[in-house]
């Protein structure tokens, strides 16, 4: 596996591959890799000649200074994991290499997707995401890029950015990878204390029950039920639960036949914020 921390070096390597007509699959990450990340990389390996992974903890997408400071960094182990799935190239730049002296975001218009859910609770988050993904796409120039449905709103926003700007990259969504007890894998899970880690699978349990209820009950009633369940929970604090239409991410008022819906949730386990979602029928 080749490892680069400078833009010019990774660009030179990829230009050489592109000249030889190799297709490039790209998986952007913030590191502290787990099986969820590896599932994206494996998918990319199947469909592309070369797979590039980036590890970059992007400061402009954090609205919470403590979360940024404490974001887990496990580079040595990440490199081992990347080698175990035969990743071809790791791009691991510094903040200065990406932003120079100006650590700020471009302002994006994602046709309203950015104002829903995470956008309401994480100020400027999606401008930060848009800025870093656009920058990385310019550096890596991938044919395909892989994003997890774990961050479904982010996936839809990246698709929107690609469409609006006519970017020459195909965006592929990948299913959520879970622990055996149902908790969605996340780099932040390693920061949970034992009590919170034991409590956290409750989130997916509730999502599965909400999915079942969606067959017979309306979204407002299900939301009230979820809110009550978390009020009764001794450790977990609900930030939001929303049933939304997949394309617009707007809260579902009533079910319409030809639309697809998902339930989205954000929960605080102490100071650690966890998100998850589930497809509804
Ligand atoms: P992150 O390092 O958290 O920024 O995640 C990098 C990519 O991996 C994003 O596209 C995430 O949606 C995806 N990802 C993170 N966790 C999971 C998971 N449990 N299952 C599938 N994809 C994931």
Helix count, per DSSP?
Answer: 11
> What's the count of strands?
9
Note the beta-strand portion: 15-25%
CATH homologous superfamily classification of the largest domain: HUPs
Small-molecule binders here are: adenosine monophosphate
CATH topology of the largest domain: Rossmann fold
- Number of separate structural domains: 2
Query: Helix proportion of residues, in percent?
Result: 25-40%
Q: Given this structure, which CATH class of the largest domain is correct?
A: Alpha Beta
Determine Rg (CA atoms, Å).
Answer: 19 Å
Whole-number average pLDDT? 97
Within the largest sheet, what's the order of strands?
1-4-3-2-5-6
Q: Main sheet?
A: 6 strands, parallel
| H-E order | EHEHEHHEHHHEHEHHHEEE
- N- and C-termini, Cα separation: 42 Å
Shape from CA axes? globular
Compact summary:
By secondary structure, this protein is α/β, with parallel strands linked by helices. The protein is built from eleven helices and nine strands.
